[in-house]
Amino acid sequence: MSRAVVVFSGGQDSTTCLVQALDLYDEVHAITFDYGQRHKREIEVAKALAAKLNVTSHKVLDVTMFNELAVSALTKEDISVSHELMENGLPNTFVPGRNILFLTLAGVYAYQVEADIVITGVCETDFSGYPDCRDEFVKLMQETLCKGLDRKIVISTPLMWLNKAETWGLADKYQSVELIRNETLTCYNGVIGDGCGDCPSCLLRKRGLEEYLNSKGSTSK
User: Fold this and answer.
1) DSSP conformation letters of 56-80
2) What gap in Å lies between CA 177 and CA 201, rounded to an integer?
3) What is the pLDDT of residues 54-93, one digit of tens each?
4) How far apart are CA 221 and CA 201, in angstroms?
5) Where are the beta strands (DSSP E) in the chain?
6) Neighbours of 138 (CB within 10 A)
7) pLDDT digits (tens, 9 = 90+) for 189-212
8) Predicted TM-score of the model (pTM)
């Protein structure tokens, strides 16, 4: 029996990965992290989607202590989301150490449920400049998990080399465009669906959808 664990935030990318995983694996376990994020609404969105999609199990893990260390516009309400880069060249929505923590805990959870695959929606092609979304980082994390757990754990990144338009195309392959468009939460300002339309995440998502729909229209002509 094939088993996978999906790191699941309830956003566009992780939901696309979850929908695909449900088609590929016998058991799909979703894990969501409460790290004191600015918009806890995403946890409720993740719960609703996991129930709707009938995952094998959905664990919400409390790691709110992480909030004390991670200074970011996504963890501190007094820091406004900015379109400008910080002095270190990173956006102020970068949460330092987040994917290190998430993939470590997801690997431990995979060990517990006897899954060999951990799936995450990180992407190097259309990412926001986050260093922990790069392929090199993921490969190193996979090696670390395998050595630390003394077990083969594969970190799968289905979106790594896809742009946002191609990510919408993958969702369409599984007849999930409307679900992802209307019921996921990607917006940095906590607005479900198409979002606020102004934050960096919403603009990237909107451009990708428009590009995909335009290309799909051209192909059908």
Assistant:
1) SEEEEEE-GGGGGT--STTT-TTS-
2) 17
3) 999 999 999 887 666 555 555 545 555 555 555 555 565 6
4) 31
5) 3-7, 27-34, 57-62, 117-119, 154-156
6) 21
7) 889 999 999 888 899 999 999 999
8) 0.89
